[in-house]
Amino acid sequence: MNLSSSFDEPARLLTIHYAGEPSLEEWKAAMLAAMSDPRFGPGIKLLLDRRLVGTPSSDFVHGVSDFVSLHQAALSQCRAAILVGGKGAYGMARMGQALLTFHGVEFEILESTTALEEWLRR
User: Fold this and answer.
1) With a threshold of 0.85, does the pTM exceed it?
2) What is the number of domains present in the chain?
3) Residue 35: which CATH number?
4) How far is CA 116 from the centre of its chain?
């Protein structure tokens, strides 16, 4: 399985861990499972940890944007971030950031564990 999730209750942090490059369908299933968790709700921190995988395709990023558009009400209530591991992944995350902002969902792009720690403290 390319995706798994964990929940840190004291931090109210839901993390989706990427062990391999998921298909869009696999990603959607993981997100739907995360969003159906009873702990998911307003004020939750959602982290997509992509450090271990490469650069997603533009088709994948557009598919994520379409999914977010359909689930904007739930996802706009989260603090979301993506942790990337390279310049290509950062560039695609910026493209995704622009698309998702259009749908009213904002997220931060983090490039290091130091940036992650700062984001978690805020």
Assistant:
1) yes
2) 1
3) 3.30.750.24
4) 13
